[in-house]
């Protein structure tokens, strides 16, 4: 956790200082967002796994590891993989899974799902597919929390604003730390 905090502080300083090309700024933006994804996982509590889950090798693996999923094009590239090296979430190692189709989530479940903006037109399918599932949905698109998404990481000037739809979080059986909720902009 200390490594994440240090990395976040250094990244924020780099992000806020100096002028850089738009590509470099985008890389820095997604580096910061990668750190935010990791840190979000430390401030959210997932319900205990139920024994009703069918035991496939993917499901058994998911119970031993904390899975961060990326749905659609991956804006993080190798950055997210680098950020999670040596980190643990709730005493579990972390794995990144990339999904191109919604049906893949059933075969390879995740706990935290970043949804690329190009996949948001499928949001109604997500809502039906993930209803009641303890999956923290995260995006970086205007209006995501108002549509029922849980966490939105929006770039505002030189900072990243965290928006949270707390009602959506509670409906999924998740709970968020008061520290996170105090930092976030609550959206209904």
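-> sequence recovered:
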């Amino acid at each position: 956790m200390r490594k994440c905090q240090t990395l976040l502080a250094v990244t924020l300083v780099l992000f806020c200082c100096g002028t850089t090309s738009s590509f470099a700024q985008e890389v820095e933006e997604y580096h910061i967002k990668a750190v935010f994804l990791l840190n979000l996982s430390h401030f959210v509590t997932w319900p205990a796994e139920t024994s009703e889950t069918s035991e496939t090798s993917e499901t058994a693996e998911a119970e031993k590891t904390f899975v961060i999923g990326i749905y659609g094009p991956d804006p993080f590239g190798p950055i997210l993989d680098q950020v999670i090296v040596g980190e643990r979430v709730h005493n579990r190692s972390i794995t990144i899974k990339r999904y191109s189709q919604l049906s893949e989530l059933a075969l390879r479940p995740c706990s935290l799902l970043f949804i690329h903006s190009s996949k948001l037109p499928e949001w109604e399918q997500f809502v039906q597919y993930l209803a009641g599932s303890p999956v923290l949905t995260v995006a970086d698109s205007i209006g995501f929390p108002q549509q029922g998404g849980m966490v939105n990481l929006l770039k505002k000037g030189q900072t990243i604003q965290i928006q949270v739809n707390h009602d959506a979080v509670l409906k999924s059986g998740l709970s968020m730390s008061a520290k996170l909720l105090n930092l976030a902009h609550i959206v209904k």
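The chain has one domain: 2-186.
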